[in-house]
Amino acid sequence: MNLQQLAVFREVMETGSVSAAARNLGRTQPAISASLKALEANLGMELFEREGRKLVPVPEAHYLLSEAAEILTRVSATETNLVGMRNRSKGSLRIVAMPGPSVYLLPDFVSRIKSGADDLRITLSSRSSPQILNLIAAQAFDVGFCDLSAGNLNTNLYNAETLTCDCLCAVPGDHPLAGRPVIGARDLDDAPMGFLSAGHPTHRDTRAAFERAGVTVDPRVEAQYFIPLLRFVEAGQICTVLDPLSAESYRRMNGDRGRIWFARFEPAVPFGYSIVTPKQRPLSLLARDFVGQWGQHVRGIIAKTAGEGPPFAG
Known about the structure:
alpha/beta, D-Maltodextrin-Binding Protein, domain 2, 2 domains, 5-stranded mixed β-sheet, 11 helices, DNA-binding transcriptional LysR family regulator, transcription
């Protein structure tokens, strides 16, 4: 018994004749009759009593019709769903990211992917970078986006694409340094500063940059993520050294209303992002496309902040 035989059988049952079924299916009457006989042979039972040219369904045929209709409907729905998945207009995508990009930049990017694809189901969660690596290793999400503060990446548990860059400096829009394309550590001697928590590598690297420049650091505010620090920068209370995506998130959220100037910072303070996916499970077409497009998007932002694109300021 195969799907083609079931489709012929259903059409004969619904139309009541071989000739009508042949006409609807675009086949010859002998081909329809042969398909019915093959189905009966496979089942080892007759489905019709033949009275001349008339086919009279036996009770078992009515049972088979109900089952065949459900099977064929499910097969048709499966084909439709797979076509949607092939065209990236159907399916699910589960993303977990660190809080900074999750505020605006990542949802904005994902919403553009979903535009015109109403059947896409998106899950977007926010976790710390160590939690993200654990969740991806456990295959709880399709794609993770974290920074490199979580330590060495265990490539036995997940695939990782690393994107490296240098941090920027953020100063209030009315600060004397605002307008400069590059701000150095010496320019911030004894200025009130905001940092990530002491355990984050960026805290250590930023302090080291000030020490190499021989200037005094005046830490006033610490936060777990960069986005909260920008509220203090807006208020004119601190300056900070931060990653490019946090700066880009602020710029896009605020547009012309932004009250922060972003500039390149010297000496360089390195920062790294990682796009991680489960090691033991192949990616769907949708997830594979997302990884490629998001990586390209992040690289574009990094290039712009590094001076390889248009001037960058908030």
